[in-house]
């Protein structure tokens, strides 16, 4: 049965339209020249074609935002295997173009869709990337480096020259300057008119004020993800195996003695037809988890690395007692408003950001979504082709956050999402930051730059047509604004933690108490890096790879 217009527009209201109907995928999106076939296809194999046993210097679990640059870097000197549970994006129009963003988020299944959906116990829908490139292959493409506070709050002894070189390595390959059109330009001007200054122009850096950030969509609207960083890889030294679900890390004693430590020895994964494969480490090798804030703690638990009583309650043999695995899990709240403008707008994902000093980042998007007239309407003739509605969104991301949640197993099957609770706004600091951010949205809506997006009323007045909840009328009332934050909370998909540094991994990303095992991804973060994390995660993969090679510079590994 066709749904009424408000169904579609209301579900847009919390940014990137997770519940837009799949029919959008069939809409023609204009002419885009296809990507040239990526060079990494030469060393990508389906798991069914992988031998039952093989040996590598480094085994990276997860070909995602951090895992791809890490593998590309290590392959310059070592034999590297990347084990990815999803497939590849190349050839999938929705994944490869900006216009396909909505359909990718909605077109989900439990088994092999590029996007895997889950809903936290807070009741907020969310997604995970299940594709080579990880979330960088399904996200909105905004690129901005981490803030200084992120570096201060981690216990890593950062080499900032290497940090900057790692960012630049990423930026040369896959980051572009976006072209602002109607909505993004108006939001930029509105931010400045509302006092989010100075104007910093186009910049990758995290600086207070309003700026245009980078984009991983090029000028033709084609996506470039972390997988494209394999252009730097040494093909003879790297293999990427897809559609491979790692079921556990193999852990054993590093030496037969009373003081021996547990050490990773390899991984066991299963292919699409259920066959098992063993990827094992060569001498001095390591297993590196880059499966993300959901996948990495889940795999540690299923491998017997976690709280002993909890693992025992599941009947999982305990390899190493590590009580904080799955704890300190965070997700940055997102709140905002959406409007139907009186003028047509272009499709735009995040291009402009307002970096405030009050604990919130302001971002925006616009799109065209489909709707149908009510079924069997007496007054409206059902159109033969779908109709489309322009919707524009302003949103704020709460910095941090301070509220922490946790993850626990739902099953011993790695393919089943674990149970996640983020505890949004359980810490009053986050409530205050959200109120500050939503008040700033109110200030922007009152600027001259927003006048063109109002409708003319019958008596000469002009006002917005809101989709879903509008901001409270009395925005000076803290309680009303706090209630708005709690009622309209959604995710911006920047969840992190679960293998937090200092609790699960040390300052070199090594799992505490286990040799030859690291975690290199956002699960180690206790704070979201800047406005959007993908830049920092790709930098991190490159950075840790360089540091690891420096530590082993005198060791010859390739036979």
Give structural notes:
- This protein has 12 helices and 29 strands.
- It is of the alpha/beta class.
- Strands 1, 2, 3, 10, 11, 12, 13, 28 and 29 form a 9-stranded mixed sheet that branches. Strands 7, 8, 17, 18, 19, 20, 25 and 26 form an 8-stranded mixed sheet that branches.
- Helix 10 packs across helix 11.
- The N and C termini lie far apart (63 Å).
* Mean pLDDT metric: 90
How many H/I helical runs? 12
Provide the low-confidence segments as ranges: 1-34, 375-380
| Estimated share of beta-strand residues | 25-35%
**For the CA atoms, what is the radius of gyration?**
24 Å
For the report, how would you describe the main beta sheet?
9 strands, mixed
How far apart, in Å, are the first and last alpha carbons?
63 Å
Helix content: 10-25%
Please tally the β strands and state the result: 29
Q: What is the overall silhouette?
A: globular
Structural class, from helix and strand content?
alpha/beta
Oligomer: single chain
